[in-house]
Each structure stands twice: as structure tokens, then as C-alpha cells.
Amino acid sequence: MVTGPTTVVSTTASQWGLYVLRTIVPPLVLFVIVLMAWDGAVRFWGIKPYILPGPWRVLSAITSSRDELTKAFLLTGGSAVVGFTLSVLVGTLVGCLFSQSTIIRSSGYPYAIFLQTVPIIAVAPLIILWFGRGFGGVVAVAFVISLFPMIANATAGMVQIDPDLFDLFKLNDASRWQILFKLRLPNSVPSLCTGARTSSGLAVVGAIVGEFYAGYGSKHFGLGYIIRLTTDQAKTDALFAAVMVSTLLGILIFGVVSLISLTVLARWAPPEVGERA
Amino acid sequence: MEIIQRSSSIPMSAITPDSTSSAGHETPLIDVAKVAATKANAASGPLIDVRDLSLRFSTGSEILAAVNLEVKRGEFVALLGPSGCGKSTLLRVMAGLIHSTGGVVTIDGLEPANARKNRHPLAFVFQDPTLLPWRTVRDNIRLPLELQGVSYAEQMKAVEASLPLIGLTPADATKRPRSLSGGMRMRVSLARALVTNPHILFMDEPFAALDDVLRQQLNEEVLALSRQKQWTCVFVTHNVAEAAFMADRVLVMRSKPGSIARVIDVPFAHPRTAALRESAEFAQFAGQVSRELREVMSW
User: Fold this and answer.
1) How far apart are CA A131 and CA A139, in angstroms?
2) Cross-strand bridge partners of residue B258
3) All structural domains of chain A with their residue ranges
4) Rounded to 5°, angle at Cα B65 from B64 and B68
5) Looking at the domain assignment, is residue B98 inside a domain?
């Protein structure tokens, strides 16, 4: 049918339009409302700029130090991405290991939970001590803080499998490797994507916390260093600027990971699965 | 465990070749040749032999007790019983997926796992299609061969051969399971079972989730295929009409613990078509099996 492909394309385009309308427009509208309320509150109550600078003042601080913020954005973003990538790889490998035996899982899982429960502020100085100041130490903190969600989700995805599928593999005399690579790993992809979305945000937090302690020196520094420096100097507008850019970094990394997840999951997730408010 | 074997109580005069002509059949409802062949087969010994089988879970609950049954080569046996009576568990024990705690299961004299590897390839069709959602239909169908180390070229050859047998087109082969209807998914599951060219086919209520029309259609197709391929089939169902239509023998199970309570020979000849279901003889036989089932359930 001649109109078939056109219909499909227009449907897909309208679906994308609807997706953008539902996911991007509402937070933007809320952002504008918050900015207006923020500006109104600062003007109405005459709040001092060192307590709460207005949005225009923060915007001005971002513009005036955009070169520094861009460099810091790239440096913190780089360490967050490396830490996050390491947590995806190591978390998946640990999940593979945990899926092989109940004994291995019950022996190792409490130590994985330790990563989740230990206060990162408390161990970050220790990690910096072991891995050194600078990029390596920051990556290590980002890695440690973002590892647990990957381990937990990878393990769940590789263990929680329809028993009939195991029976199918058993009936065909599948080896342990075949079960791992043809069943457990592909089955865990949706869980891995969920874990990756959580870990990506945590990796940014980890990189910034790591920079609180590791710093990089006055010529070479990330967003964490700027946040700490501007706090010490009571430059609240510059602090807000750094926080805003940090938030933007977090959203960007989360958005990219979510987009990759959606693309990958197109092969997995049934389209009829939806959400209800 | 005593197996109570009852022959059909349908009077022979009621099931005659004459009655078939009115239903549009060319073949007689009573398959005299098959009865003779069955008797001859009995002498040569069963393909699947279950002796004093029992199964008790570690929690102490007794699932199966003193189960005895035989399935002959090429025979289609239906396990019929109420939900929870252990039909599916018995099927899994016969396939070697669960180890019994007592008694013996042999396939051609070997343990099921050994028989499967060395002599009699077997396939299992689950209640749900159990397809891998990340694989296409073609990749799902070739999975058993892939796991068994068959070359890719051979896998593809077998897949292409199996598609038309189960009513799938080459265009269906490139789709993913999520874009298929329930009936189509079950067809893919059946194709995956027959791609290994099995000698024995275990089916665990494969059509339970389908609507009645589709269920009947698949009943006819699978039955015709099993006759053509000479499979030995054990088919679990709780649907009396399905058991009566497909099986050569219906084994009625009782529950708590699961055991065989009745063995009923099905008197209808092959090939069986949709017209059989509309015949008075079929309704009478299905009614008789229902009565047996109710009796067993009331124990």
C-alpha cells in the first residue's frame, strides 16, 4: 500500500512529538515558574545577595566565569563518565559472578551493600589517600559511589529469570557459558539500563564529592573545587552558578544514558507496558 | 498403585463407519488397524516407562505417589486432571527436568537425560511460549540447534523447513515476539520444539491461554503433524474435549498426592478433523471422560 510508509513515518514523528511534549516541556515550564518565584521572593523580601542571589545575578555569574565553568564542567564530566563506565563494567562482571552460585552471592552481597551504606563523605578522604589527588582519586570516588546500583541490578537481572527458560536451556544441554551469554546477560539488559540510570546521577555526585577533597590546584580544577572555594569565599552567586552547572552536568549524563537505554530496550520492552499516574 | 483400566463404555454400534459418513468423514471413527498396531506395539515394550514413581518436596509435601504408566512408540497420551494434581510435575519428571524421590522413569531403557542425549531427542512445549524477547522469531526457533552446536547453515535450513509446518511465513521470521499475537507466539514455540526433529514431544497445556477457536485449530494442526512425524507425545491438559480429540489414550489423574486414577482408550480413528468434534459419538465420549474426571475429583 502506497500510503503505508508515510503513515508509519508520520505516526513515529507524532509519537516523538508527544514524547518531547510530555517529557521536556513540563519540567521546562516548572523551571520557569521556579525562576519567577525565586526572583519575586528575592525582590519582595529584599534578601541579601550573599544569602540568596537572584536568578539574574546567578546568570551573570555564569556568564562572567563561563570559561572557568566550561573547563570545570568538562573535567568533572570526564571523571564522572570514567567512574560511571568503570562501575557499569565492574558491576556487570560482579553480577555475572554472583549469578553463578548462591554461595558466591550470599558471601559477596553483604560487601556490595557496604558500598551503598557507607557514608561517602567519610571514606572519600581515604580513597583519595589510596588513589592520590587529582583525576585518579576523583574517578575512584565516582566509581565507588555509583557501583552498588549496577551490582544490584545486574545480579537481579541475571538471577530473576523464568524457570521455564532454564528448563529449555537444560533440555538442550546448554553449558554454563551458553546460559550466561545467551540467557542471563541478555535477560539482564533492562535491569542494567535501570541501574545505569541511577548510577549515572550518582557518578556526578561522586565526582563532585571527590573534588571536594582531591581538588586539582588553582590552574586545573573541577566543579567540586569551585563549589568548595566559593563557599569558603562566601561568593554565593558564583556558588549558585557552579551548582547550576553541576545540575546541568547531572541532567546531561542522565539524559544520554536514558536515551541509550531507550534505544537498546526497544528490542526488549513490550510496547504495551506503560505507566499509570 | 493400582491402575484402573476401563474400556470406553460407548456401544460399538453407536460408533460405526456409517455414522462417520453423515459427519463427512471418509475414514472410520474406530481405527481397527491402529488397535491391532497398538497391541503389536505392546509386545515390543513401551518407549516411556514410569514405575512406582513418587515425588516428595523437601518441605515434606507429597506431590506424586506410586505413579505407573507406559507410553508406546508413536502414541499420543493425554494427562488429564484438575489443577494442582501434579500433571505438569509428572511431565517434567518424565522429561528429566525434575528428579523423582522414588521409582524409575526410563525412555527406551535409559534415564531421560541419557536417552535425550544419546538416542531419542525430545522437545518440550511449555504452557507459556517462553520466547526470548530480544531474539527474532527465526533466532528463537533456531535456539535449540544453536545450543546443541549445530552449524549455522544447518540451523537456518532447519528453521526454513519448520516455518511452513507450523503456519509461519518467512516474513514472520524477522519479527520479534512482542509484535506477535498469543497464537502466533505459541506457533513459534511449537516450531522451536520441532526444529530439533524430536522423537518425543512433551506438551504442558500449550494452548491453555488461547481462545477456543485458535485452540481447536492448533489441536488439529499439532495432531496431524504428530501423526506425520510419528512423534511419541505426552500432552498435559485440563480440557476434556482437547484430551479426547488429540489423544490415543487419556490418563485421568487424581490429586493429593498425584497419581493415575483412570486409563481411557480413545476410540476415534485418524485423521481426526473438526467434523469429529461435532459428532454425537465425540460428545458422548467427552461426556464419559468428564464423568470419570468428576468421579476422580470427588474421591
Assistant:
1) 9
2) B64
3) 1-47, 50-265
4) 100
5) yes
**pLDDT tens across A36-62, in order?**
999 999 999 999 988 999 999 999 999
Q: Is residue B150 part of a domain?
A: no
The residues pairing with B78 across neighbouring beta strands, listed in sequence order, are B235, B250
Q: Nearest chain A Cα to B147, which residue?
A: A174
Contacts of B209 (CB under 8 A, 6+ apart): B127, B128, B182
Residues composing chain A: 277
Q: Structurally, how many domains does chain B consist of?
A: 1
What ipTM does this complex have? 0.79
Q: Are B270 and B222 in contact (CB under 8 A)?
A: no
Residues of B in contact with A178 (CB under 8 A): 147
Which of B200, B179, A172 minimizes the C-alpha distance to B188? Answer: B179
Choose the CATH number for A50-265 among 1.10.287.600, 1.10.3720.10, 1.25.40.10, 1.10.260.40. 1.10.3720.10
Q: What is the CATH number of the domain that holds B46?
A: 3.40.50.300
| Residue B10 confidence class, pLDDT cut points 50, 70, 90 | very low
Distance between CA A224 and CA A232 in Å, rounded? 12
Nearest CA in chain A to B179: A270
Beta bridge partners of B251: B79, B263
Question: What tens digit of pLDDT does each residue of A203-261 get?
Answer: 999 999 999 887 666 667 899 999 998 998 889 999 999 999 999 999 999 989 988 98
Put simply, the answer to whether B124 touches A162 (Cβ < 8 Å) is no
- For B192-203, the pLDDT digits (tens) are 998 988 899 999
